[in-house]
Structure formats: structure tokens, C-alpha cells
Design goal:
The complex is a heterodimer. Chain A is α+β, with helices and mostly antiparallel strands. In chain A, 30% of the residues lie in helices and 23% in strands. In chain A, the strands form 4 sheets. In chain A, strands 1-4 form a two-stranded antiparallel sheet. A two-stranded antiparallel sheet of chain A has the order 2-3. In chain A, strands 5-8 form a two-stranded antiparallel sheet. In chain A, a hairpin with a 2-residue loop joins strand 6 and strand 7. The longest helix of chain A is centred in the N-terminal third of the chain and has 11 residues. Chain B is of the alpha/beta class. Chain B is globular, with a radius of gyration of 23 Å. Chain B starts with a strand and ends with a helix. Classes of the chains: A alpha+beta, B alpha/beta. At the A-B interface, strand 2, helix 6, helix 8, strand 6 and helix 9 of A face strand 3, helix 7, helix 8 and helix 9 of B.
Amino acid sequence: MASSIIWYLREFVRGEWISRFFTVKTPPLITPPHFRGFPILTGKECTHCLACMMICPTPNAIEVLRTGDVWNPVIYPGHCVRCGMCVEACPEDVLSTGVILETQKAEHTSYTATFHLTIDPVLCKRCGNCAVACPVNKEIDPYLGGTGTAFSDEVIMRISDGEMRVIHPEKCTGCKTCEKTCPNHAIRVARVVEGLQEAGE
Amino acid sequence: MQEIKDMVCPFCGCLCDDVTLEIENGEIVATDNCCAIGNAKFLGKNRLKNPIKKVDGKWVDITYDEAIDTAVDILLDADRPLLFGWSGTHGEAQCVGVHMNEILGGVIDSTTSVCHGPSILAIQEVGHPGCTLGQVKNRADLIIYWGCNPIEAHPRHMSRYTTYADGYFLDNAFRNRKVIVVDVRETETSNVADEFIRIKPGGDYAVLSSLRAILRGKGDMIPDSVAGVTKTQLIQVAEMCKTCKFGALFFGVGLTMAKGKYKNVRNAIEFVDDLNRHTKFTLTPMRGHWNVYGANEVMSWMTGYPYAVDFCRGVAFYNPGETTAVDILARKECDACMIVGSDPAAHFPHSCVEQLRDIPMIVIDPFQTMTTTLADLQIPVAVTGIDAEGTAYRMDGVPLKVKKAIDSDYPSDTEILTRIYDIMLEVKGL
């Protein structure tokens, strides 16, 4: 009996095993540089151009919200798929994740985008949700954004002559807020995005 | 081309007062800021032309004087006249209607009895924790639409009063406001909701009671599923309601006319009452028919009761279920009827419409409706907000002065009713 206990102890309490247990070499617990987490703010000033919302492929993953007089993008982790396209699309480098910003700088890449707004008059109820919620409209005509009453013809779209009409499609930033607020899927924002690369120095 | 600003829309209970009309040759040719249904009413072309009377099954053209005399004869000959409708007209005409009903000893009822009548019964029992739509727009960060589909029935409600307009006390109102829709089926409104609760038809009372139990910390007693809604979702919704800063519950006939009727609304009011122990919460019925709120106000201040007022005893008597239009017609009690600014033939049960067809019926309305086809006497009038002016109440109880946009030869409801009333006084020697 005693000899078998000693045998077990000699078998399992080996000096080599004990020293390896305390001095084991595991890889360091740091995030590798190529890893992309949820985008974080870099502290640079957001200009509320909404390019991040325009490019985002996932519904409800990013919004540009105002705190006092400052705009900043807000990421919703439950929806965000960490594709990093918002980081690439932002012209002001407000967001950052992984090595995207460095790579972009090194390779001189950027995006340009054009938009095409269409409204199906058969589906449209003229409820005004899109025109009132549109963040660009809210800046151009705060009265429309605050009360639902359009005064200015400088807005992207408004209800006039009994129809929801797109008046200034060139002002659209492609953020898709209108699509999201339309209950009948009557308004569509087609986005044509091109990736550009300048010649390196 | 003449442009008139700040006109009040004559269609639904939102009473949008920011409509711009373009007038050409005395006709409205275009509207700005109006939704699809408001636009259709402003541009409506199917107006009744002149008074007509049915003689031996055929329509005969008559003058307004003859029409008024015929109306007086029909109403004074009746033992139990019913004066129904009133929601499509202005407050001044409703006042004349109540006076007329008093000398006739008839029943006056508004379209309330087939829409938000149960809401009023519940409010009479437990009160109305309400507020104006301006408060909702400027403060609310949680909106609940229960049994209603504002995109179809009140298209501008969400963009103008609740969800997407900026709020004075909110930084990102149009993005941060949460919208909960409770309905028995998916609707346009549920497409834009943050949370959609789909309940089995008739399950409103149980769901409201469950939410109240959760709020009072008695969630343990709730089964895993209540009327098709999971317990997890109920707990989540109760938490959303409890943690918001200012919530607003809007409900439609999906709640008032579902199984349980006024008890549903009573439960909803008590749910709001419970929530007010945690946060600020309000409740507003989605009044649909333009000035239906005004009809309740006028009848309340003149008779003490909001609708279904019976004057056959010489004094006002009110007993919904007995003195409401549908019940009086279903019992075939009513022997003459005057319909003002509403379309019961399109909305009443079949047996009631049969009774309307069989008794002498006067219809005072600007447009062709299903009711006008069954009438014995049609008196065309002006539309308040287009060619007549008056006072109307918005769904939150705010009275608005409604201007007229164009002049026409049509008399207003007030004018026609006053002339009928004056002759009645003369005949009765009062």
C-alpha cells in the first residue's frame, strides 16, 4: 500500500512538471494588430456627414447622435458586424478599428459615393416620416424637422402638390434614415460606392 | 393662383393646421404638407349638387326651402327621431343639433358610440391621464400604439406629433424615441416599430393585466405565454415602459372594440396609472373622425353627457347600450333619422342599415356616401375647412378655429340646422 502511494507521488509530482507549470511560456494575452474590434472614437471632430451610416451594411448598427452641440457616431454592438467599412468611409477619421486607418493612409485609398432617391407614389401615404426624420432636412429646415411643416424648398424631399417629391437629391448623404422610417418601403436610396486609390508618392 | 397658408385639414382627428392650399378660379387645385387622405378630401370632386327628395322611389330636385320644410315635417312627425353623426361638422352646428333634439325629445348620438364610446365609459370610471400632442412631441421618449395603425388612419401622426419631429427636451428625438406597436397583425406602423407585440384577437385585457402584474413585482404569477405574447417580451416591454422618461400610450378601436371593450380601456388607464408611480406616462385615444372629440365636448357641456343622449323624458338621459344609435336601430325603435356629417350605412351592422333604409332619413352631408344612396332627403352643405368655417377639436382636446378657403353657394351645416330649428320653434309655438 505504502509503496504504491510513493509510486504515485514519484510518478506525478515530478520536478519537471512542477517547474513547467509555473514557468510555462504561453502566447501573450494581447490583441493582435490585425484584429478588428467594434469601431472606437478617435476624438477627431465629427462633421455629421453621415458617410458611416451610408456605408454600413447592417441595419441599426450605427447612428450619428448629438450630445449638446457635438455630433458623434454611436455603434450598437449587438448589430455591428465589425466590417470596418464605416472607418474606411469616414473622411475625418472619427472612427478607428484594427489597422484600417494605417493601411488606408499607406495605400491612399478612399471611397466616393453617389445616391439616387426614388419614391413610389403608389406605396407612399405622404405621412411625412422620411422628410421629417431626414437629418439633412433637419439642418436645412429646422421648422420641418421640429413640426412636420415644410417651409423651405431647399430640402431634399417634402410634400408639395399632394405628393412626396424629391427636390434636391444632390444634398442626400445616403444615410438611409428615410428608408428606415418609411412604413411602406416606398422610398429607396440607391448607393453607388466606388473605391479609389491614388498613386503613391 | 392664390395661396392660403395654415389651413386646417378636414379629414382626421389630427387636425393638421399647417396645410397650404393653392386656389385657382375659386377651386382648390393643390395642397402642400397634406397626407394622401387629407389631399383627397381637399380635392374631393363627388360633391352633392342640390337638395333632392325621393318621391315614389324616384329622386326629385327641390329647393333648399322645400328641403328644410320636408326635414321639419319628417322630424316633427316622428315619435322617436334619431339625430346621428356630427363628427364631420363644426361645433356650432353640433350646438344647434342638441337644441333641436331637446325640443324634438329624440336621441342625439355621435359616431363616438361606434368608435371610442367605450374609452369614454372607462374615462368616466377611472379618469383620463392625458396631455396635449405638443407635450408628447417635446418630451416623450417612448410611444406605444395599441390597436391602431396611424400610418393608414392618421398618416402624419408619427411625423408631426410623436416620433420623428424634434423634441424641445430631447437631443436626438427622431433616433432615440422608442416605438412599441401592439396589434393583432403586422401593420405599416409595426414596420417602423422598435418592438412589435403581436397578440391574439381579444387578448388585450390579459396582456394589460400581465404588464400591470409585472410592474407591481408580481411577475411570478404570469404564465409563459399570455394571449400569444411570451413572458420574456412582456417583461422586456414592462421594463422599457418603467425606465423611459416620458411615455405616451395611444390606442385605437383595436382596443376599444375588441372583446372586453371598455374594460380594456379601463385596464389601459390603470396600467398608465401604475406606470406613473415609476415615471411619467400619458394616454390619448386616437380619435379618428375629424371633430368627433368636439361632438363629445359640445354634448357634455350642453347636456352633461358625451354621446347617446336621449331626451324622450324631457330631460337628458344617457345609457350606452340602450340609447346608442346602433341599439336604437337594431331594436327598430327609431322611426325617423337625421344624419349629419357621417356615413353610418358604410359602418353600421346590416340590420341597423336595413332599419335606416326603411325609415324616413334626412342626410345633411357635402359628399356622396353610402348613406346618401339610402336617404329620402339629401341636403348638400359646405365642408368645414373648405367652404365653411367653424370650431373643431383635435384628438387631444385642443379646439381649433377652422377657416374657410373658398366661397361657394353651399350653405353651412349651422345655417341649414338653424333654419330647420327656427321653423320647428315656430310650429311648436315656442
